[in-house]
Specification:
alpha/beta; 5 helices; Rossmann fold; about 260 residues
């Protein structure tokens, strides 16, 4: 874990109200795992007062070496609105890489990835990581869900990696007019995967977990939750265990990637 002030390499629109920001970071980020995150704070800004968590969207590579990381984010409040105003050469304060990421055993080859909205942020890093592990991405499928076509992210980049991309929108403006989990249900009956990786809204993750359990498929989910510190001090990201002991796990230390069977969701 590194605490540092890092330089902004770029901060570009990825479609309103989404942005990609590139950050020049410490070499330790070369070991960052898909699913890990950083806690970011704007310098000389009182709002927001606390740091905010952002999944690592990808590593920035040059000459085979990690030069930094890229974050994909959505402008939803004053903090992310101010972040969207950062320019090349500005500095932000980050702590990372944090948390536990996705586990990728060597015997996983047929992989399903389920992304809901901005939940695609850590999953694109996962897809890139699978390519680095020489996994045949043509055997992998991505189920990309969003409210409308304007909220679809990374579809072309994922397709360019060689993965089959299934698109679902709530309003039918692109792809199938259905929930992304409906598309997953259909596909899993025809071609059972070795594993399902997912990130998105809680209700989507609940549905993915039920589908995985029904078809006896290993599953890992990255949960989205409020965090104030990212290092286990504030205990604000507690999630209840499924064993009815009244005990809790914490997304920043025990996750944010979990086996859904371990959580009461």
């Amino acid at each position: 874990m590194i605490h540092e002030k890092v330089q902004v390499l770029w901060n570009k629109k990825a479609g309103n109200p989404y942005y990609r920001i590139g950050l020049k970071c410490h070499k330790e980020y070369s070991t960052a795992q898909p699913g890990q995150f950083v806690m970011l704070r704007l310098i000389n800004q009182m709002v927001p007062f606390l740091r905010r968590p952002f999944s690592i969207h990808n590593r920035i590579m040059k000459g085979g070496r990690t030069q930094g990381i890229e974050l994909l984010y959505k402008v939803v409040g004053k903090g992310t609105e101010k972040l969207s105003l950062c320019k090349k050469g500005d500095f932000v304060d980050i702590i990372g890489p944090l948390g536990k990421g996705f586990v990728i055993p060597d015997n996983y080859h047929r992989i399903f990835i389920v992304a809901g909205g901005i939940g695609v942020a850590p999953l694109f890093f996962l897809a890139s990581f699978l390519m680095e592990k020489n996994i045949d991405l043509s055997a992998c499928r991505v189920f990309l869900g969003a409210k409308s076509k304007d909220d679809l992210l990374c579809k072309d980049e994922l397709s360019d990696l060689g993965m089959t991309v299934h698109i679902c929108t709530d309003d039918g403006s692109e792809g199938d007019k259905c929930l992304v989990t409906d598309s997953l249900k259909t596909a899993i009956c025809k071609n059972r995967p070795d594993v399902i990786y997912a990130c998105g809204p809680l209700e989507m993750l609940k549905s993915v977990a039920k589908i995985a359990k029904k078809h006896i498929v290993p599953c890992q989910i990255s949960i989205e939750t409020i965090m104030a510190c990212g290092i286990g001090a504030c205990l604000g990201c507690a999630v209840e265990r499924c064993d009815n002991t009244g005990k809790y796990l914490h997304a920043c230390l025990d996750g944010p990637v979990f086996n859904p069977h371990d959580l009461k969701i």
